[in-house]
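Narrative of activities, Objective 1.

The group set out to show that a structural description can be obtained from nothing but a protein's sequence at a throughput compatible with the screening campaign. Below is one input-output pair from the validation batch, recorded exactly as produced.
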Amino acid sequence: QVQLVESGGGLVQPGGSLRLSCAASGIIFSVNTMGWYRQAPGKERELVATISPNNRKIYADSARGRFTISRDNAKNTVSLQMNTLKPEDTAVYYCSARHDDRYWGQGTQVTVSS
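Output recorded for this entry:
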């Protein structure tokens, strides 16, 4: 079955950095658009960044310039490097894979607080 397993979340101070990773199995990774989404308490899930099979990247305005999405098709992983983190980046971050269907990971908590 399809599994997307996120890792790398945690507690970080404002201005700090975190790197999230997502390991995928059960899909043909190279043909999937991979993405990161987040959901803060009381808010809807929102796009953070996506990367297409040909490495076209799309960023939310809130992420552009601070976050970088990348993929490794040999390792079936997608990563999100997050720099200059702000308290408003606090959320559960979800990995997503989309081709014919969409799949979600279980999420990883990111908390930005002093």
